[in-house]
Design brief:
Elements (H helix, E strand, L loop, with lengths): L2 H19 L1 H31 L2 E2 L6 E2 L5 H8 L1 H35 L3 H11 L6 H12 L4 H8 L3 H8 L13 H25 L3 H9 L4 H30 L2 H7 L5 H9 L5 H24 L7
Antiparallel strand pairs: 1-2
């Protein structure tokens, strides 16, 4: 046996001994590759985005002026149209998150309390099945469903509800030329798209509610309604908060649904897409990108107080 071949086993044994004696070292070595990837790709891109937002664009040449300043943020906050875009997107995100909880909670409650075995598996598959379909296919399918000559409008006409729909579409802030080109249509598609992301955390939270708590509430004289509102719902708040985090954040950054379904006004995602693409104004696009990051950070801080991360 040569000296080099004998040194290799001794080196391997020394490393194994060091890892056995110090589990923290083993954990550190396991985390180094993903942390390097996270720091380089994710944090590096965010830092680049933040840096770009402090640059400006030359109105004459269209080139980016790489001199740090706050002019781009003044442009962002100084134009009423940009403020409208931020408010419109934030309001849509909050509305979608709330509506998703209203729709998801009954289904999640039924799955957690009244299903088991094959029936529960069926509901799991039914909830996750839309996630296996192409995102663009679902969005374009909804555009056809909500079109002026689509099946949904035909169904409403058959039920004699065509006139109320037209009156609803004429309302400002929620209406539009048709369901496929209105805020109502965008709202409906958003809720449909993010619903699985809301159902699963709520279901996980409801599954962790001990049945003994519900029985104890009944033994103490509480009615089923009182038990639901004072026992079940408070214990499900972490799951509700986690679901709203998904719905809120995904709505803030999405630009495909408003663009394809055809909202009358701009959203933050659409503005970012247009500024970095057609307009070529990278600094303004980067400044707009900072807005949803700040909104999501504030929402995450609020959701953390509700225990959202306990349900993930």
């Amino acid at each position: 046996m040569t000296a080099s071949s004998a040194a290799r086993p001794r080196g391997a044994r020394s490393l194994s001994a060091a890892l056995y004696v110090s589990p923290q070292l083993a954990t550190f070595l396991l985390l180094v590759p993903p942390l390097m990837w996270f720091g380089t790709v994710y944090l590096g891109s965010l830092l680049s985005l933040l840096t770009q937002s402090f640059y400006t664009i030359d109105d004459f040449t269209g080139e980016v002026v790489r001199v740090p300043s706050l002019d781009t943020y003044r442009q962002l906050l100084g134009q009423p149209a940009n403020i409208d875009i931020v408010l419109r997107t934030g309001l849509m995100a909050i509305t979608v998150a709330g509506a998703s909880v209203v729709v998801a909670f009954p289904l999640a409650y039924f799955m957690a309390r009244y299903t088991a075995g094959a029936v529960r598996a069926f509901f799991y598959v039914a909830v996750m099945l839309p996630m296996w379909t192409s995102y663009l296919v679902k969005v374009y399918a909804w555009r056809l469903i909500l079109a002026k000559q689509g099946i949904f409008r035909w169904l409403l006409d058959q039920l004699g509800m065509g006139a109320p729909l037209e009156a609803l579409l004429r309302l400002p802030w929620i209406g539009g030329p048709s369901l496929a080109s209105s805020y109502i249509g965008v709202f409906a598609v958003f809720v449909y798209m993010w619903l699985p992301f809301v159902i699963l955390p709520i279901h996980a939270a409801l599954e962790r509610v001990p049945a003994s708590y519900l029985e104890a509430s009944g033994d103490l004289g509480a009615t089923p309604r009182q038990t639901f509102w004072h026992v079940t719902v408070p214990l499900a708040v972490p799951g509700i908060a986690a679901g709203t985090v998904f719905a809120f954040s995904l709505t803030l950054g999405d630009y495909i649904i408003p663009q394809v379904v055809g909202a009358p006004g701009y959203f933050i995602g659409m503005m970012i897409y247009e500024q970095q693409g057609t307009a070529g104004n990278i600094p303004l696009a980067a400044a707009f990108s900072i807005v949803p990051i700040l909104l999501i950070a504030a929402y995450l801080a609020l959701a953390k107080r509700w225990g959202a991360f306990d349900a993930l």
